[in-house]
Amino acid sequence: MKILSWNVRGLGNPRTIYRLRQTLKTHTPQMVFFMETKINKIQMERVRRRCGFINGIDVDPNGSRGGLCLTWKGNVSIMLQSFSKRHIDVLVDDQNNGQQWRFTGFYGSPYAQDRDESWNLLKSLRRNEELPWLVCGDFNEIMYGFQKKGGIPREERRMEAFRNALEDYRLMNVGYSGNWFNWEKRNLPKTNIRECLDRGVANVNYMSMFPEATIQHLVHSTSDHCPLLITTNKEESRSS
Which intervals hold domain Endonuclease/exonuclease/phosphatase (predicted)? Predict the structure, then answer.
């Protein structure tokens, strides 16, 4: 299976939708998680259908901020578990191996003072530890200082809180290929800031179920975030 996770920074622009359709056509994901759609559920449904995705779970933004969507093709079986302004949690019946696993699309708060709230949400989602579990999205935090270039260095206690949260919930990085940084604040060269904010993390049972799973940081042009393309086996990765 292929899954695309992308902080799109708004889907109200026709040019953005055109580029989105091109990305989906090129990489053919069966499931897509969008963050910061910045459009209401009715508008998001129209965008989904224009992109060839009938099924979806849409979460309204708060005014002009936020907004989530998880959408999937008809040959994928999805069962909604819970959702909020910061996450969509589902069970996936994988027809390739006949097994069930969890996918959580996660959008961490962009505000430093609300980081604990994000990690507490992640904690509340940790249940049924035997089930393979993949969490993917924009966590709005880095794990180590070298995952940021430019700007004010990140406070160690903030990075440590993020690392501790992942360790406590037994989630490990899936790894990636492509550009090192997946978010960029496009300023002048002297004030440019780049960080690794988007990632996929999973428990050991997911890693055992999909030992060939990979994540690619794709090239982007309409958002300051790279799309993440998750593939669960090498054959699909080669075909993208």
Answer: 4-141
pTM value is 0.92
| CATH number of 152's domain | 3.60.10.10
Asked if residue 22 lies in contact with residue 16, where contact means CB atoms within 8 angstroms, the answer is no
Which residues on adjacent β-strands are paired with residue 228? 5, 217
Strand partners, 229: 4, 216
pLDDT tens, position by position, 170-210: 999 998 888 878 888 766 666 788 888 999 999 999 999 99
Q: Is the pLDDT of residue 238 over 80?
A: no
197: nearest Cα among 48, 4, 7:
7
> Count of domains in the chain?
1
DSSP 120-171: HHHHHH---TTS-EEEEEE-S--SSGGGEESSSPPPHHHHHHHHHHHHHTT-
